[in-house]
Amino acid sequence: MRLDIVLPSVLFMVSVASLLLYERYEKRILILFGGQRLRAREAVLMVLAMGLMITIIAFIPQQAIMVLFLFSYSVILYLFVYLAASKWYLAVSAPALFIVLYIFYWNAYLSNFFAIVFAISITLYLATALTWKYIAVFVPLLTLLDLVQVWGTGLMGKAAEKLITLHLPAMITVTAFPSDMNAALGLGDIFLAGILAIQSTQKHGRKFGYLSIVAITAFFSLFWIIQINLQIRYLPATVPITGGWLIAMIIKRIKNKELKKRR
């Protein structure tokens, strides 16, 4: 039987890091983006945009993908560094360094490092703009999109293979342990876990936010073990991430009802 503790641990640690950084920089992020909130109906547009992006990546030439991602990542990195340091010259230097490293000195360690930075950055930026109603629409639609693109059209796999070929930091890649095999997790999956943890914290408190991360990681671990033992090439990771979060929400609701009965 194949087992792995590395990939679930990565999901757990990056989600915790996103929540900790959000608690520290929440006010600054709100000021930076003017406190704007996305409406529930805009969740549909975002999911459609994500689906379109996956389709485009699956079909356009590799050089176009590289230019698109380098530009997008540079903008995200600029905003992240400016958020943390509030110095424009540091913010400008960060994307320049990233591009130089990617062209001349790139390796797996740098790719994972920047993938983690980008995943956390996107989580922090969007978490301030999301509402509970938005999450209620966005999460089911994103999970459905993932199912269709992974097991239906197969476009997610094609897009992932192109990104891997270009060595772009679009996913975190590790060596599984104790099973010696390659394992990868996309930034979208990590982003989903992060925003669910942050929204859970805002709705039900910090303790529940961390408990939701534990539930997400545990449920993801179960699906990941099934995947590697059945040798399923691609898994729509949003399914176990959403499932773990829903389990935490159900348990929370049951406990709240029990407390009300005792009162």
Polypeptide structure, described:
The structure is a single chain. With 263 residues, this protein is mainly alpha-helical. It has one domain (6-262). It is 79% helix and 4% strand. It has ten helices and two strands; from the N terminus they run αααααααββααα. The protein has helices at 6-32, 40-59, 62-85, 88-104, 108-127, 132-152, 155-165, 187-204, 206-230, 238-262; strands at residues 171-175, 182-186. It has a two-stranded antiparallel sheet. A hairpin with a 6-residue loop joins β1 and β2. α2 (40-59) runs parallel beside α6.
Brief overview, please?
This protein is mainly α.
Keywords:
263 residues, two-stranded antiparallel ribbon
Beta-strand portion reads under 5%
Taking the alpha carbons of the first and last residues, their distance comes to: 48 Å
What general outline do the C-alpha atoms trace?
A: globular
Tell me the number of helical segments per DSSP (H or I, 4 or more residues long): 10
Strand segment count: 2
Low-confidence stretches: none
Largest sheet properties: 2 strands, antiparallel
The total domain count is 1
Q: What is the percent of helical residues?
A: over 70%
Q: Roughly what is the average pLDDT, rounded to an integer?
A: 88
